[in-house]
Amino acid sequence: MIHITDHPWLQNANKAPNVNLSETVRARLQQFSVMNKFKKKALRVIAEHLSVEEIADIKEMFENMDINKKGQINFDELKYGLRKLGHQVADSDVKALLEAVSYC
């Protein structure tokens, strides 16, 4: 069994140069952080206006798609679940959906 501290990334940590981030990278990270917070707040506002029935429907749909019952939906589960609901979605669109919700 390999110990985590033997991983090449950690072994090379002391050898890696300490490079400052450019202003462009910093600005993009800050913008990403702000947009992520905005998305979370927007989703919260939307969720607060859903009826009990709509919430129950969404929860049931999620539970039906969560085949392995881990509380998260992976690519294959989402793809299968959407097809089961009659939506033929391209793999690239399924990936985009997952990426969109994982940043929220």
From TrEMBL:
Signal peptide location: none
Coiled coil (residue ranges): none
GO molecular function, one term: calcium ion binding
Domain EF-hand: 53-88
Alphabetical list of SMART domains matching this protein: EFh (SM00054)
A Pfam cross-reference name: EF-hand_1
Protein name: EF-hand domain-containing protein
Taxonomic lineage: Eukaryota, Viridiplantae, Streptophyta, Embryophyta, Tracheophyta
